[in-house]
Amino acid sequence: MELKVDRVTKQYKNKIAVDRLSFCLTPGITGLLGANGAGKTTMLRMICGILTPDSGEISLDGISVKDERYRNILGYLPQDFGYYPEFTGADFLLYLSALKGLDKPAAKQRTEELLDMVGLSDAAKKKIKNYSGGMKQRLGIAQALLNKPKVLILDEPTAGLDPKERVRFRELIADIGKENIVLLSTHIVSDIEHIADFILMMREGRIIRQGIWEEKNGNLEDFYMKEFS
Amino acid sequence: MDYDVQYDKIYRYCYYKVKDKNLAEEITQETFLHFLDSGYREQGKSLQYLYTIARNLCVDHFRRNTNNKQILLNEEPEEPADSGFEEEFGIKSDLQKAMSVLSEEDREILLLKYANDEKDTVICGLFGISRFSLYRRLHRLQKLLRKHLIVYSS
Amino acid sequence: MDKELKMAICRAYEAPLPGRKEEFLQKIPQNSMQKSSLYEIICSQIGYIHKGAWFSATAIFGAILYFLSQQEPNTVFLCSALTPFLALGVLIESGRSQRYNMAELESATKYSLRSTIFSKMLILGIFDLIVLLLIISLTQLQKRYGLLLTAAYILLPYLLTMWLGLMIERTSFGREIPYSVMGISTLISVLMFISTGTNIIILKPDYGIWWEFGTFILIAEIILSGQKRMDQLEESIWN
Counting one residue from A and one from C, how many pairs have CB atoms under 8 Å apart? Predict the structure, then answer.
């Protein structure tokens, strides 16, 4: 399974957000590091197929990311998301399950499983407007996993999570990353330090470093600070 | 149709029929391959078709392995006398004993309805019975089996 | 079916865990996945249309029936003054995803954002169409104007609201949309009321041809701008 990004460019008005990017993703966890405004979110949206590049192509084993078959195995957590005002946590997951093509019994089962996995079983019947930031974020992570995705794209997933929740999250992701492609975009190095198999570093729409990160290369945090200060 | 969920269900069905884990899994996978190859399009009856394939493959298996006790050529091969229920600690529960004397069709219906949670439309289509007869049968079975249920306190 | 019995029966059929499932499922080609049909999408979305949309549509229909029962001479125009609010229901529903910041999540699902918005609009649109046809046939019983003209009188305000509303949604975004769209429908509605009361020339059957012509043009325009809207959906969200 290989996700291929081929010379992708995206421009907004007079700013180039993503500049002729090319790379490949394979099963395992890839960390996408970079400051805010580096073009990470734009890149992620293009990989999800929800934003069209001005030039270049993105495909998974030959299937375009615009294809319904790709979206069927995709899980995505955006940096920011909302909810319909009347929704409870369970309603939210059931609604998205319907959009992901799950039938009612599968949706119900999966919703229960995931609420349990992210520790929201007790809050399932409560309205999302009463959720804390961390709870909402955990709900977002849950929805990304509804369809057991083979490609999981996460944009700043640990925002709002407390240290304990972060550990739980890392374990969850590490598990999923064994067989599937996980792309995690963050500016918090500790999120991916111990679980990332590959690292991509972006600055101003370009990839400045990419490769396998090994412990022997030193402290990722120091390296990151050096590159980005 | 969620292949993940359906795999477990077809596997459970096949295991009940052939009583062997590896064989059941093999037949399950063959069932899916047949289904996909056939290019079956009609969404509504997909599940029914899937079960039909599985059932036929199980029957084929028996045909291949049965000691030929058939006298008449078109006699259906007998399925093993064992009802197919795993013995727990070598002792069959009262309920399992009661289930072992039910007809094959009744046992399959119970599996599909309660263990596999399939919709009534699928079950009726598979056995060629009306909803009304299904409900009557389930009601009868329920009454019958309730008597044999021993509740173990936790 | 009592729970105990059901659980006991389930246990009787329990099978040891299949060992090769994940391996097999990975191998099943994605190509064989059945593509979703519009029918599927519509069925799943029907339940998620805001209750308010159904309620207001029914209320408007009720009000119109009331007018019809009153047998006023200018019933046609009174009815058509209310149709902009039917259009409002559809417009508000179609903008919900963006308004509540759900659009990004809904874009990355199996049923694309385009299909979900389109199916919601289609469902409400068909409901509105049935209501409008009923109104047209009921007003036609008065036999004041020809069928085509009656239809045009009733449809034009609806179509005008729809067309302007879609244009607003395409060119602006955010929380103000519902207000401007509401404003438009109210404006058109009030115009119709006023004209009815003051017996303005434009309502006279002599100008009927303009109404019929306008109706056809608007239908074509809406279809075209609707398509344009779908294409631009993505850009308008992310900019």
Answer: 76
Q: Which residues, numbered 53 to 72 in chain A, qualify as contacts with chain B under a Cβ-Cβ cut-off of 8 Å? A: none
Residues A94 and A142 grouped into a single domain: yes
Residue B4 to residue A105, Cβ atoms within 8 A:
no
Q: Is the dihedral of CA C153, C158, C161, C164 positive or negative?
A: negative
Task: Judge contact between A193 and A7, C-beta under 8 A.
Answer: no
Contact by Cβ (8 Å): A171, A29? no
Asked whether the beta carbons of residue A106 and residue B117 sit closer than 8 angstroms, the reply is: no
Number of domains into which chain A is organized: 2
Quote the pTM value: 0.73
Range of the domain at B16: 1-80
The two beta strands, A151-155 and A206-212, are unpaired
Domain contains A195 = yes
pLDDT in tens, B86-102: 554 444 577 777 888 88
pLDDT tens, residue by residue, A112-164:
999 999 999 999 999 999 999 999 999 999 999 999 899 999 999 988 899 89
**B20: its two tokens:** 């062997």
Cβ B151 vs Cβ C11: under 8 Å? no
Domain end (from B80, B95, B116): B80
Boundaries of domain holding A59: 30-73+150-156+174-179+187-220
